[in-house]
Structure formats: C-alpha cells, structure tokens
Amino acid sequence: MRAEDADVDETAARLIGLARHSVSASLFADGNVSAVFEALAAHATPSRERTERSGAGARGGPTVRLLCTPQAVSNGMPSAADFRGTRCEIRVTEGELRGMLVVDSRVALILACPERAGHAAVVKDTASARALDLLFAGSWANARSLAEHQRMSARLRTESARRILERLREGRTDDVAARELQVSLRTYRRHVAEIMRELGANSRFQAGVRAVEMGLLPQRTDAPLLQRITTS
Question: What's the DSSP call for residue 143?
C-alpha cells in the first residue's frame, strides 16, 4: 500500500493491538516510528484485563521482541525507560535491517526502506508471515542485548577511543597514528587491540567500518576509504 507515515503508524498500532502471544518488530531510526514504539510499549505492558483473561498468576500481554539499529539507539529510540516494566526484550544489530512487524506468526507489516517512505505491505498469508518470523529469528539470534550494546558503546565513546577509531577509518599506519596521538607505538597497538576486541572486529579495516555502523563515527562520503567500502 502507499500511504502517509501516519497511516502506516496507525496500521502498525492496530496490528500490535491484536497480538495475543508475540510481536516481532525490527525498526530502523529513519522515518516517523515514534507511534510504533509507543504502541509496542503500551501493548507489552501487562494490563489487569489481559492478566485476568490469561488466568490467575499469569503474566498478561504478548511477548515483544524489538530489534533496532545502533543509529536508533543513538537517536534515543527506543529508550530503555519507555519499556521498563513491559514484556519487551530489546536487541541491537549492526546488520542491514528492514522495518517489519510480525504478529503471532500469522500477519505481518513490512515497512518501506527510507528511500521509499510511505510504502508498506500487509502480509496476511500465514505461511509467509511464519517465514518472515523465521528470518527475524535469524537476525535476533545474532544481535546483542540493549544493555550489552550500551555498555560497549559507553566504553567506545571516550575521546581517546574516538580519536583512535578515526585513524582506523582513515587507514593510518600504526606509526603515523601513534605519533599523531603522541603515544608510544606499543600503547597505541594495545588500545587498538582492546577496541577491536570490543567491536568483535578481525581487522583494523573492519573496526573502522563497524564504528560507522554503530554510530560511533559519522559517515563521511568524501573519504576514500568509505568510497571503497560502498563500491566493494
């Protein structure tokens, strides 16, 4: 369907409101997604009515799995405080993410990429919805918890880490980078090893790429290194 953001948000909120067992949601930072976050938080909160309907002692409300990008976290969406007391688990992935909602593995809403804002598809075929839920599960399994991401991000957002990441992105040699930062070559390499371990990177090149993906460094389309990344 082709619709305005408000119409897509209304459709997403309506589908979330129908959930009885589970909601799988993957959302990127771009676009107007605040209404979707609000609907997720509200429906993931066990209400008295849902608890009574589920039986005495049961925890009412569906289980919500929310997968988002590091950029969304950097922009304050979602905030852990918004989901406190809810049945929602939040994870963060550096992989490519398409906006999607899957409700009870039976109906889904696929949101358009930012380049085609205002487009969405509602999938009512149960087999297709289940297949989308399986694809979501694969991304979910490889993502890190929001708390783990925030701990790692805090360690990597120090001024010294940022300066090292900038030099890794620019492809500086260790000798040159150490001189620029006015530290010994041994100290620089030790810091680089710690940063690579935090990022789960196997090379300095990969560390620079992941730093951009996680929002630790801004994208620089004029940088030769990033031009090579986007064209490779």
Answer: S
Structure-token pair, residue 180: 């620029």
DSSP letters, 144-166, are: EEHHHHHHHHHHHTSHHHHHHHH
- Compute the residue count for the chain: 232
Residue 87 gets which letter from DSSP? S
Which tokens hold the place of 126? 């149960």
Could you tell me which residue, 38 or 225, shows the higher pLDDT? 38
Phi, psi of 11 (to 5 degrees): -65, -45
DSSP secondary structure string for all residues of 30-68:
SS--HHHHHHHHHHHSPPHHHHHHH-TT---S-EEEEEE
C-beta of residue 66 within 8 angstroms of C-beta of residue 90: yes
pLDDT of residue 224: 46
> Residue 105 — very low, low, confident or very high, per pLDDT cuts 50/70/90?
very high
CA-atom Rg of the chain in angstroms: 21
Q: Is 106 left (phi over 0), alpha (psi -120 to 50) or beta?
A: alpha
pTM (predicted TM-score): 0.65
Q: What angle do the packed helices 159-170 and 146-156 form, to 10 degrees?
A: 90
The pLDDT of residue 50 is 46
Q: From CA 102, how far away is CA 190, in angstroms rounded?
A: 44
